[in-house]
Amino acid sequence: MSSPGVLPMYGRPTHGAPLSLLSRRSFRPREKYLIVLVLATFALVCFGAFFFLPEFRSSGSAVNESVYRVYRRMQKAGPELLIPAPPLHNEVAPPPDLVRHNDHRGPHHDPHLLGDRDRLRAKIDEEHAVRNEGLERPQLDPRRPSPPSADVSSGPVGAEPPLAPPDGAQLPDAPLTVPPAPSDRYPDVNRGEDRDPQARLRRDKVKQMMKHAWDNYKLYAWGKNELKPISKRGHTASIFGSSNLGATILDGLDTLYIMGLDKEFKEGRDWISENLNLDNIVSDLSVFETTIRFVGGMLTCYALTGDTMFRDKARHVADKLLPAFQTPTGIPHSLINPSTGISKNYGWASGGSSILSEIGTLHLEFSYLSDITGNPIYRQKVEKVRSILRDMDKPRGLYPNYINPKTGKWGQHHMSLGGLGDSFYEYLLKAWLQDQSDREARDMFDDAMKPILENMIRVSPSGLTYVADLKYDRILEDKMDHLSCFSGGMFALGAKTLKNGFSEKYMDLAQGLTNTCHESYDRSATKLGPEAFRFSEAVEAKALKSNEKYYILRPETIESYFILWRLTKDPKYREWGWEAVQAIEKHCRVDGGYTGIRNVYLEESPKDDVQQSYFLAETLKYLYLLYSDDSLISLNEWVFNTEAHPLPIKGSNPFYREAL
Ligand code: DMJ
Description:
The protein is mostly helical and about 650 residues long. It contains 20 helices and 20 strands. Helix content is about 45%, strand content about 10%. The strands form nine sheets. Strands 5-6-7 form a three-stranded antiparallel sheet. The radius of gyration is 33 Å and the shape is globular. The chain binds 1-deoxymannojirimycin (DMJ).
């Protein structure tokens, strides 16, 4: 006979066939237990679905919302449903909120029950906060007036859930708090009027130029990236992708603020609050340009005003750039699609390399962002880049312009203080200026300058100092980019901020290079400098090729005038700046704004019909500050990013606004 086995027999065999369950009136005890067990299991599974299935929690539809409400109620009651609460002597259980916040729970509460309920409730609250409300808004000093436009949470970013911490980074647990600055807005008084009446008149002129550039952008290209001042419509360069991101607003806003153009500043501020959102941008953006112009611009506005909208939007934009760092080495790619997070390099850049000036020009913005958000991820990313560059073997101590993000090896051995190299060196110095405890940055700067001084600085037959490009390690190209003209200011800053074996040489170079850049302006018919200029037996400080003869409203020469004026007080720098103002007014100003020109050697040059965003961010800002008192954006308290957005210096600027 076969044993009944482990499995129950549901009917008694009759002539070999089991009796049907339905044909009997009653169940045996064992059958009853089994049915109860099956029903209980079924109920438990249904019940569990409310707790664990994620789709019940989404709030996308009315049905889901009502299910979610039921779910929340059941969660609140969860422990009591499963484990009945012990009777509380004549006491109605306090509402969960009270239980949660009241430390005096009394002797009658079951500690386990309350602990479970508290934990459950805390978990629900936490999820609810993360899904629906975002992190708590930082509490600024209550004495500080509200930001210019009342509701900073109404913009697209403010309304959405906070971004997931990239790469598993932890968002700060505690709400951000920001120490009060001595006053709400910078500067406190008089906005830096110079005592010299001529400087005041010149400064007013520059302010009018800014107004002309801004008003026309507003009229013809509002919300577009840049303005075509002759066609009177919007323009976008490939660095901004194909979307309308308001690049001119983001780049020009702090200049408006510094100039006291408050109405215009508020218009721009409100546009950013309501419109700036990269979530759905599908075209590739330049990681470098987006950082220096967008993130940099908003960080400055945050420092100047304390308006947390700027900080939050800067973080939003930076978060969209972070996936570009997900390469085998951590060296970021040049381009990123903010919507997909897919990043890549330019095809033309030495076998898919990243570019030195781009990967090395994120440090100021990312470090500051970490300090004001309390999230270390941004600083970690740029410190990683720094450490790779620091540890690499360098040909004769020089940094080539290209580096492969997969292998961590150099690409072509081209070196330059102009395009592709320039602001990497600038940021080594400025990272130290921004935070003087970053001694490594200053050392790397001095170490990098030494071989540049030895190999790339040249003096022309007539005595003009210039910095040449170096190709394939050893071939000097006797050409200097307009872009390299920032280096006069950089060397002056290097000389004046630390007395070391290089200081004197740096100051000589600063003055020599700035003089050469001025010569490149002075030797043209328009008194504007070409994009690149050459040195040979036949020609000095002049462009030779037609594609070097344009002037596209660039700031670098004027930037050096400004820094050298501040550091030497030699009046020639103000005069040279004024020559540039007059030349820009004569050759670049049109009814609809300011345009670049194609040939600086022609009195009547064709125009390129583009008002570059950096004209508002940099060229006009440096000119304005050139004719302002030193107290306005003092170099002791501010360090300019490479797009002329001043960032506060840690430890000496009360507007640093570091998160506590
Ligand atoms: C600006 O965007 C920045 O100064 C950058 O570092 C290089 N060049 C342009 C303006 O010429």
